[in-house]
Amino acid sequence: MTRAAEPTPVPPGIDNFPQAFLNSFSRPDADPPGAKDWDCEPTARHPRPVVLIHGTFENAFNNWNELSPKLRNEGYCVFAINQGAPRGEVIKGRNHIPDSAVELAGFVDRVLRVTGADQVDLVGHSQGGGVLPRWYLKFNGGAAKVNHLVGISPSNHGTTMLGLATLAKTIGVLGWVGKLGGQALPDQVVGSDVHTRLDRGGDTIPGVTYTTIVTRFDEVVTPYTNQYLTAGPGAKVTNILLQDVCRQDLTDHIGSSYDPIVHQLVLNALDTSRAVEPGCYPVPPVIS
Questions:
Q1: Region 239-251: what's the mean pLDDT?
Q2: 195 contacts 130 by C-beta, under 8 angstroms
Q3: Does this model's pTM top 0.85?
Q4: Which domains does the chain have, with CATH numbers?
């Protein structure tokens, strides 16, 4: 039961987050194009399936509608998790980070079991590229099952949310934010219990490769330098600032998972032997 090395081409998906977000209201649990083909068998060229992890208040369909088919058309087996909220809800990624990490652990185990692969590569946005997969790697046995974590605008060391979250914490209303918007919000604030526990002992786990893809114009994970990682023993970290790659790229947090320059950097990270220099051209922010 061997599949052809070259998959049937997947048509391009929606090319911007606002349109994908609106479309996801009618299909909150849908997979993005090219994802979750449980008959997919990894090839010698791409032996590790790619698991896509959406961010806070996003879902698999609206976060990955453009990148997922690109990865599938490159020959990867692609799987996209919906986590952090009940089925039927559009706004996902809201639950306590350790609880969502348990969901991720079960999803990765299923991918490995069905595909027969030894490891996966993780590609995530915001929460899904930072604190959530890092928690899974450290506390849920993920380190042995993951080769590479690629984080797009990752919430690695918490956010001040332009100072608003810090203010809410200072005046004692951060708990109400959690009740209204989900525990994932206060979990990702600088100095939270989750970040304190996660960052104790260093940023990385031995044997795992990490790539961060960061935009200077991130308005959600602030300051943007909180997204970078420092390599510990036995780990490799590559921190990429988008504006060092292309000064014309003005993408923000919301738009970064739809940035074609980011997509090329993801492909380069997943397969360095076939890396291509990204083009450089104007990429506007979603929120200006």
A1: 98
A2: no
A3: yes
A4: 17-268 (3.40.50.1820)
